[in-house]
Amino acid sequence: MSATCLVRRAQPGDLDALLMLCTEHARHEGTEHALAGNAGALAQALFSTPPRLHAWVVEARGQLVGYATASAEFSTWQAGEFLHMDCLFVCVGWRGNGIGAALMEALVDFARCENFMEIQWQTPDWNVDAARFYRWLGAEEKRKRRFFLGT
Question: What predicted TM-score, i.e. pTM, was given to this entire model?
Answer without folding.
Answer: 0.88
